[in-house]
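Pasting as-is:
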Amino acid sequence: MNTYIMRRIKSITLFVSLLFLILYIPLTIAIYSQSWYEFNYRNNTIDSKTSISAIENVISFFLYKDKLDLNIWSKKEIRHFSDVRNIYLFLHIFALLSFCVLLFLFDKRKMKKISTYIFVVILLLGTLFYFIDFSYFWNNIFHNILFYNQDWIYTQNEMSYFLFPESFFVNSVVLIILGGMIINLLLFLYSLFSSKLNLFSSKP
């Protein structure tokens, strides 16, 4: 394999790893931040004490600290959250691998170019998100791809109905896109100022 192909593979691998990590960071906020859950739940239909107990319980479950409370969640919800936690585990493993790739392949000289590409990708994702029918995508495509059962469909008699309205996921996608934009901007500014500092330091 010639040098050019190897360089391209390394650049693509670095790009994919960095893009994933940039989006992964705000995703973890949506998954593990109690404040984010409290901000998004249907607060006019359930008392705050009950909702906070449920939020704390599900976050502890996602962190492998506690089991889901049968007094709060139905058996169907528990099965679904177990499936969701397995997906999160896969994402965490991929994030760790991406971070290792970043450690080995990080090249400050390439960051400005890569962050520009990442900006374009995130902008395209944001544009796509703006124009698609989110309800149709979420209910008929996303869940059918990731889940083999119908446990994700909840009723008004289940806690998930109150804690996870569709607006929770819409807002989470917005958080991920905007958060990714901000992190990528910081990366771009770092690479920009870093290159300028190197340029100044190289002058006699």
